[in-house]
Amino acid sequence: MSFHAEKIELEDALEAIEYYYNKGWTDGLPVVPPTEEKILAMLKSVNMTSDTVVGSIPERGRVFTAEIVAINAVMAGCLPGYFPVVMAAVQAMTDPKFGLHGPTASTHGASIMIIVNGPIASQIGMNSGGNAFGGSNRANATIGRAIRLLLINAGGAPEFDRATLGHPGKISFCFAEKETEWTPLHVQRGFQKHDSTVTVFACEGPNQFQNHSALHAENILRTLADRMTALGTFNMGSDTEMAVTISPEHYRDLHGQGWTKETIQEFLCKHAKRSVADLKAGGLIEAPIEEADHRMFKHAVSAPDQILLTVAGGEAGRFSACMPGWFSSKQCQAITKSISVATGFT
Q1: 67 near 4, Cβ under 8 Å?
Q2: Per-residue pLDDT for 346 more than 70?
């Protein structure tokens, strides 16, 4: 297989790492030098030639080939077994409905969250348990990092990323959903349980909440609903999706009392709301509060299926989280892709 990238010969790996630093080809952390052998090993895990076009950012005139994606996956520290997940994530985030240019150029500083479902998660050793968001697992950390390095080195991130603050998820934000009695995310989104999929979503960092006192499901969910209605998020200013991750302790209470993902989504859609009076009192709307404002409401999501509901985290700890979305679902929608289809193994 022939490669198109420029070949650079350096003394050793340490020199190569410093060379990449000097070129600005990293996310601030050391990278793995991408040798031809390592790149080829990545490409062998997918049914593609090196020059296969797998995605683009039309607004920037940027094109991602399989070779370019493989180079950045090597640099991120991925093993070849992870590469099909990376490839599916790239295809998902370059889907026109995701609108990749927007969230990666915005001053909002959203990151791309990657959720993996299906058999591949356990096959490659992904973490869906304790510290699932924390980057302590090689597969989780390097798959997410590969996406960020790709945006830096081939997506024009240094030029276009205008994040005011950003958040650590920009380096890597990737996890697997824990298997439970509930319907998995990818099945809710139209796939079969035995399918391996990747879902990408542009979002803020985790907004964690705790409820250690409530045992009744409705009270746990009311605490979550309140967390979902922070006035400063896009969800309270426009029509935007939101991700919610339930911890195992909260899951056991909710499931044990007969709640399903679908009934939880319906409950949260209904109760995650603030009155127009609250929006005005909180400064989101600069106008006098009128009597009718107490009877008019803005919901965090406009429909139950706008909540991407997953289960993940350690067995102990009554902490769950919500991740507000970027701007508007008209400009950026969560996308789920089949890994087998994305890699050519249909």
Answers
A1: yes
A2: no
Q: Does residue 324 carry a pLDDT above 80?
A: yes
SS3 assignment for 59-97: HHCEEEEHHHHHHHHHHHCCCHHHHHHHHHHHHHHCCCC
**Distance set, CA 220 to CA 89, 134, 233, 253, 259 (Å):** 32, 24, 21, 9, 12
Q: Report in angstroms the alpha-carbon separations of 80 from 46, 88, 188.
A: 9, 14, 29
pLDDT tens by residue, 178-212:
999 999 999 999 999 999 999 999 999 999 999 99
For residue 82, give Cα distances in angstroms to 41, 86, 194.
Answer: 11, 7, 18
The pLDDT value given to residue 178: 98
**Element housing 55 (H / E):** strand 53-57
Averaged over 329-336, what is the pLDDT? 97
For 55-82, the pLDDT digits (tens) are 999 999 999 999 999 999 999 999 999 9
pLDDT(143) > 70: yes
Apex CA 82: angle with CA 80 and CA 85, to 5°?
Answer: 130
DSSP string of 2-53? ---SPP---SSHHHHHHHHHHHT-SSSS------HHHHHHHHHTTT--TT-E
How far is the CA of 95 from the CAs of 160, 323, 342, in angstroms? 19, 21, 12
Cβ atoms within 10 Å, residue 47: 14
Integer Cα distance of 299 and 317 in angstroms? 28
Question: Strand, coil or helix: what is 327?
Answer: coil
The β-bridge relationship of strands 111-117 and 207-210 is unpaired
**Residue 97: partners with Cβ closer than 8 Å, 6 or more residues away:** 333, 335
Collect all residues with Cβ–Cβ distance below 8 Å to 71 and sequence separation of at least 6: 5, 34, 39, 153
Query: What is the Cα–Cα distance from 87 to 186, expressed in whole angstroms?
Result: 17
- Calculate the average pLDDT of the chain: 97
